[in-house]
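Data availability (excerpt). The following record was deposited with the supplementary files.
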Amino acid sequence: MSSKLFEIFTLLLLFNVSGSQCCLARQAKIKSIIRGYKKNVLHQCNGALISSKILNGFLGGNNGSCLRDTIYTLFTYTWSSTGYSITFDLTQKYELNTLKIWFWDGDNRFYKIQIYIILESSETQIYDNFVQSVFTIYFPDQMVKGFRILNVAGNTYNSYLHLIKMEAYYKENLLK
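Predicted structure:
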């Protein structure tokens, strides 16, 4: 009788362990989807949009979108005037913690900007200062539906904000 009870207990334990492994695997898959598979979610192929497109300019037409991969030319970029923003919408909410921006850097200019994270109808400011060239900002893991970059005071040469490329993604084990 005790050996039969031991077999039943062992089987129950095995089912419980394998069941929790399935739950852990499912949870890891869901996390991976929410984190955009740790890839750039601010890319036109992933459905990202520049929702402020009417207020912004695109040098090079559609090729001037900073959601493309054309980072090796300074002749295509997305631009905005002082006091205006460039707003980026994602196709879904993602858990993110990293934003990388390439600014036009054909010379030694600095840009004065503010960066906001958008979730539902609220915005959270994550940066307010000067930037130059390639700029990466790390922020606490949080759900994000979009970003807004405000051109506060243009740059050291003119009153415009020039974005060559934008990337947003989740970076694992980020030390802060």
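Summary of structural features: The longest strand covers residues 134-155.
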